Each structure stands twice: as structure tokens, then as C-alpha cells.
Amino acid sequence: MTLLARRPRVAIAVFPGTWSERDFAHVAESILGWEARMVWHTETDLGDPDAVVLPGGFAHGDHLRTGAIARFSPVMRSVEAFAQAGGPVIGSCNGFQVLTEAGILPGALMRNDHLQFRCDWQWLRVEQPSAAAAWLGDLAEGDLIRLPISHGEGRYVADPATLDALEADGRVVLRYVDASGRRVPEANPNGSERGIAGIVNARGNVLGLMPHPERASEAELGGSDGLRLFRSLEGWLHDQPAAAERRL
Amino acid sequence: MRWIAEVLVALRPGIADPEGQTIGSGLRSLGYESVSEVRSGKLMRIAFEADDSAAAEQAIGEMCRRLLANPVMETASWELRADEQMDAEEARPS
User: Fold this and answer.
1) Angle at A193 between CA A190 and CA A195, to 5 degrees
2) pLDDT tens, B70-82?
3) Taking Cα atoms as reference points, which of A110, A121, A132 lies closest to residue A198?
4) Do residue B72 and residue A65 have CB atoms under 8 angstroms apart?
5) What CATH number is attached to the domain comprising B46?
6) A108 and B72 in contact by Cβ < 8 A?
7) What is the rounded CA–CA span in Å between residue A154 and residue A93?
8) Which residues in chain A have Cβ-Cβ distances shorter than 8 Å to B22?
9) Number of domains forming the structure of chain B
């Protein structure tokens, strides 16, 4: 038996102000044929998912700092426990901000260096995909993918020692580049340190990224590179047929 | 008793502050050419109850560490005082 006995099941955390949950659910249900369950932030039952999504938006109005209040929502206790058990978690945009504020991923996301909200297509270079096997397993080192970004506070910062450690451990998995794959200042849409667009935790099961893979999963919407992340998860789950093994 | 803390959350030195830079260029364009740097931050005024000043200091320190400032990029400092006006009102015979 090499196939999952049932469809992959994903839990999508929804905070007051989240805005990408329906896009994620649409990709999961309509494109991939998965089960998607929205979990309101006051709930703690994730419904025994295979993976958890923290979508983009403005959780709790982004008050104080982006993601700062969301980490106190009851659902985050369950998300943290799921992540600690090695379950695959993806935080996109505001979800990335929540993961850093919760201390699940290092660093912080600050106001874009040009102070503008940036909504655009963005080229990204994939690095160390094996470090985030559940989410990037179908991608290869150096692959260029094109995803939308949509944020005012996406400037990744961390102290130099943390940045060096992330790089040394191969945990920087997505970087802002130009169409030729070069990391040049003009290709950095927000002033992120070292062009960092996405990182994983040490265990490799929690991926945080500013771009929106869920908004680039159908050719009709301008590109489907985002789908490669979800296909990676599907393949990874299929390779781990027993529920207990579906943890990194 | 009631205490008032004025908490100043500022960006750590060395963290780029594009908001402060923009305010600085606004001041210079108004003619204040001597302005060399602006650093932006947040001021929060917090009223709370604590038994004495030591307990109040401890509480506000915890609040800063646990929520008000993100140590990755921010520092917090505060001034604490007893809310005398409130104390006087409470002491007034009814």
C-alpha cells in the first residue's frame, strides 16, 4: 500500500482579518481534491489534519505588530503542538508573520523599506529544497518560480548571527531574485536581509514565506508555480502512508 | 493602588527605520536642514493595579518582554508613577 487511504486533509486557521483562507481552501478542494477545514481562531480542534495552513491577511488588524496578537489565539496552541510533533505547517504572508511572532520561526517581518504596500508578481529562487521536504520536495535547487506578493510588512530581519546560522544550516529556502535568478537589489521587493523570502524551522516541517502560493495555482490566474508546493506535500504524504509517519 | 506606565518602544540601534527616514526627509524639506536623524517608535500609556512600586515595576517589565516589544527588533523603556489623582479620588469621603 503506497497510497494514502484517504484524501489529504488540511486545516486552515482563520483569524479576524485573515483574507487568504478561501483561496487556500479553493486550491485544496477544487484543484487538488483534498479536504479543507477552516478552523476559527477561538477553536482548538484542528480535526486531525495532515497539514496546517496559516494564511495571509491582517490577523487582529495587525495591531501592535503584525502577528503579535494572533499568537495568543487558542488555535495557535494546537498549531504549535502540531508543529512540535513534526506536522507540516505552512505560513504565507501574514501566516509567516504569525510564525515569527510565535517564536516558531526566527527573525521578524518589518515595514517594507520603501514604505509602500507591494502587490506584484515576484521571481523566487529555490534553495535547499530538501530542507523543507514536505513543501518543496518536488522542486530542485536553483529552480525559479514566480509567485504573487502582497504585503506592506515583509522585510525579513534578524541579527547577523541568526542570519549566518540560517544560511549555514540551509534553512533559507526561497530568495527574491530577478527573472534570471540573480539576487540583485532591484529584485528585492521589500528590503529583506539577504533577499530572504522564505525559511524553514530546524526540523524542516514549518515553512514561512511572504509570497502567496495559493494565488498562483491555476494557469488562468497567471501562473501555477504555487501548485508545486502543494503537489510536493501530496507526494510527501503519499510516501508516508502511515499517519504516525506523516511527521518530519 | 493604581499605576501609570508610559512605555516607549523603539527600534534597536542598527535596525533600518524607513518611517523615521521619511519623517526626517519631510522635516528637511520644510527647511529644517539641520535634522540629521529621526527614529520612530511607539508610546503606550498603561494604567494598572499593583500593590507597590516593586510589584508594578515587575509587572510592566513582564508586559514589555511578553508582548509590547519584539526583542528581535525593538527595545522597551518606561516611566512608572502612581496615579495620584485616582488615589485622591478613592480617598475622598463619600
Assistant:
1) 70
2) 999 999 999 999 9
3) A132
4) no
5) 3.30.1280.10
6) yes
7) 8
8) 115
9) 1
- SS3 assignment, position A235: helix
> A1-15, A30-44, A186-200, B18-32: which has the minimum mean pLDDT?
A1-15
Predicted model pTM: 0.91
Residue A143: burial class (beta carbons within 10 Å; 0-12, 13-18, 19+)? middle
Residues from chain B contacting residue A157 (CB–CB below 8 Å): 15, 72-73
Contact between B80 and B15 (Cβ < 8 Å)? no
Which residues in chain B have their CB less than 8 angstroms from residue A106's CB?
A: 72
B42, B63, B70: best to mutate for the A interface, most A CBs within 10 A: B70
Interval A84-134: pLDDT, tens: 999 999 999 999 999 999 999 999 999 999 999 999 999 999 999 999 999
Nearest to B16 among A106, A113, A159 (CB): A113
Could you list the residue range(s) of the whole structural domain that residue B83 is in?
Answer: 2-91
Q: What was the ipTM of the complex prediction?
A: 0.80
Per-residue pLDDT, A243: 65
CA distance B67 to A153: 19
User: Which one of A21, A151, A212, A234 is the catalytic residue?
Assistant: A212
A134 close to A88: Cβ distance less than 8 angstroms: yes
Paired residues of B79 in beta bridges: B6
User: Quick one: closest CA in B to A69, which residue?
Assistant: B67
Question: Does CATH place domain A9-245 in 3.40.50.880?
Answer: yes
Task: Answer positive or negative: Cα dihedral of A102, A154, B44, A74.
Answer: negative
For A133, the grid coordinates are 521536504
